Amino acid sequence: MCSYCIREAWIGRVVWALSSPIMGGLSKWNILRDEDMSDRMPQIFAAVPEVVSGVLAHEAQQAWRDWNPLAWQMIKLRGLLTEPRPAGDHVHVQPAHSRSLWHHLQILFERTRQVRVEAQAPDAQENSHL
Fold it and tell me: Is there a contact between 91 and 53 (Cβ–Cβ < 8 Å)?
């Protein structure tokens, strides 16, 4: 999964069928649910998104099985892709966290500061050639 990209793009909802305990952004490193990322770098990382897992899980398993039954058996045996929840057709939703007004003000301040720095940078380069 591209969990860092999802957080940087400020995507509010992430939906998937099968989890990966080996390389998933919610399972091993918990990138999608890490509120500390948003707090430390609010100008880069969005708030924790809503996460919906298990959507069409049986259909996804069937697609793997149809594509390559041997590969699917190896994936299952190694535990590379698993159902997010063992309870059949259950879809699990973890709600998003909204940002506070203070958080939005911090982002606005940081972005306006970056624009001012970028606007002043070309003048400094012109003066250095004189």
Answer: yes
Distance of CA 50 to the CA centre of its chain: 10
In terms of Cα–Cα distance, which of 6, 2, 13, 15 is closest to 60?
A: 15
Q: What is the pTM of this model?
A: 0.60
In angstroms, rounded to a whole number, what is the distance separating the alpha carbons of residues 65 and 16? 18
CA dist 25 to 14, 20, 47, 77, Å? 11, 8, 15, 21
The pLDDT tens digits of the residues spanning 83-118 come to 765 544 556 666 666 666 776 677 777 777 766 666
pLDDT one-digit tens code per residue, 32-43: 888 888 888 887
Identify the three-state secondary structure at position 74.
Answer: helix
Report pLDDT for 99. 64
Task: Tell me how far apart the alpha carbons of residues 23 and 46 are, in angstroms, rounded to a whole number.
Answer: 21
Query: Residue 44, class by beta-carbon neighbours within 10 Å (0-12 exposed, 13-18 middle, 19+ buried)?
Result: middle
Q: Which residue has the higher pLDDT, 49 or 24?
A: 49
Q: Phi, psi (5° rounding) for residue 14? A: -120, 130
